[in-house]
Structure formats: C-alpha cells, structure tokens
Amino acid sequence: MLPLEDIRNLPLPDLAMKLLATLRREQVNFNNLVQGFRNQGGYGAPQPPDLDALLERLSDAWAWLEAHALIGPSSSNPGGKSWQRLTALGEEAAQDPAAAAKVWAGERLAGELHPALSSAKTNFALGDYETASFAAMKAVEVEVRRVAEQANELLGVALMRKAFSPKGGVLVDADAEGGEQQAMADLFAGAIGAYKNPASHRTVRFEDPMEAAEVIQLADLLLRIVGRAERRRNSQAVS
Known about the structure:
There is one protein chain. By secondary structure, this protein is mainly alpha-helical. The protein has two domains: 4-95, Orthogonal Bundle (Arc Repressor Mutant, subunit A); 115-238. The protein has twelve helices and three strands; from the N terminus they run H-H-E-H-H-E-E-H-H-H-H-H-H-H-H. The chain has helices at 4-9, 12-22, 30-38, 51-67, 88-95, 100-108, 118-125, 129-148, 156-163, 178-195, 197-201, 209-238; strands spanning 28-29, 71-73, 83-86. The chain has a three-stranded antiparallel beta sheet.
C-alpha cells in the first residue's frame, strides 16, 4: 500500500506511477483498491483525518493511468466494467522505472504532426530513437530540396544554406529583416548539422526518448516553415 505522505504530496504523474507498481498484472479494480486502503490498519483502526482527500487523490491517479493507456479493460472479465488490467505499456513501465520516460515523451507527439513524419513516429513508437530522429531530419531535407527545386546532389547543411540564403535563397522570406533571414538559415543548417548529418556518418546513440521526441517536434516546426515558404512561392507565381 502506498505511504500516506506519498498520496498527499507527490505530483500526480509520480503518484500514478507509484500506484501502478502496486497493481496486479491481470485483474485490477478501483473499488478493491479503495476498500483495501480503508481497511489497511485492520478492522476498527482509526482513519486518517483527510481520508476523503486521500481517496480523491487515488482516484485522480487511477484516472491518469487510464488516460495514458497504462491500465485498460480486462480481456478475461470483459463483462465486469470495474475490472481492468495492466496494458503492455503499463507492464513495461511497472517493471522498469526508466520505461516511464516513454510515457512522457509520447505525450509530446500526441498531437497532429506533418505527414512527412509518419516514418519518424513509427520508429519512435518501436523504440528506435536513433532512426526516428534521423528520419525526422531526413524528411526536412527532402522537403526543402523539393520546394526549393534543388538537385539531389546538394545535401545537408549546404542545401539549407543555399535554400534559405538571405542573398537570393528561393525559400527566404523577402519581407523579413536581414538578421531574421540569416537566423532562419542558421536554424535549418544547425538542425540538420546536429541531428541529421551525424547519423548519416556514424552510429549516434539516442537512448533518451524525450530527446528523440523533441527532435521530431523540431522537425515538425521546420516542415511547417517550409510549407509557408512554398505557399509564398506559389502566390508569387500566380501574381
């Protein structure tokens, strides 16, 4: 049973993960959890003065586990709505505290991302963070080359510098101030140089799912910027 001070004081995600570690694999039931908590001191034992608040915190933690797909409906007792089980991700997180980082990182990628990042998302879900990060920045490179209409031989940082060059780059925002134009070129070149080029030349160990998720998020931002540049080019061609 969880210590009372943990229930009172831990941030909700931390409390939920501690609760997860106390649950049985196949059959978990919130009503049983509450009853066990009420009777943990034995029949007639005095209850903590803030019992209702403690039970509400446990309820919040239970809801957090459900919302993050760490517990789900029981397959062996589907008719009993109150019975649940640890999901595959829940079992992994319960057995390995480090696996909980996948939960936090997955939240970063829960929203809609650019369609070009589908491969990166798939590899991230499989736990291949190196390939996911490389695929995300590769998608940026491919999209910049397509929109800027550059040859396949132009790669990486050189491609970014040419496409976004303040001096005639085809993707540069002509309405932006010169320093902003240079900063945008630096942003793309830096991102590709830091996260795409090294993985092209050597093995890069990405063991932190949060870092990989943030690389994918960065790629999503860059792809949106490229999309705006493409719309500018199209509108200029029409006019």
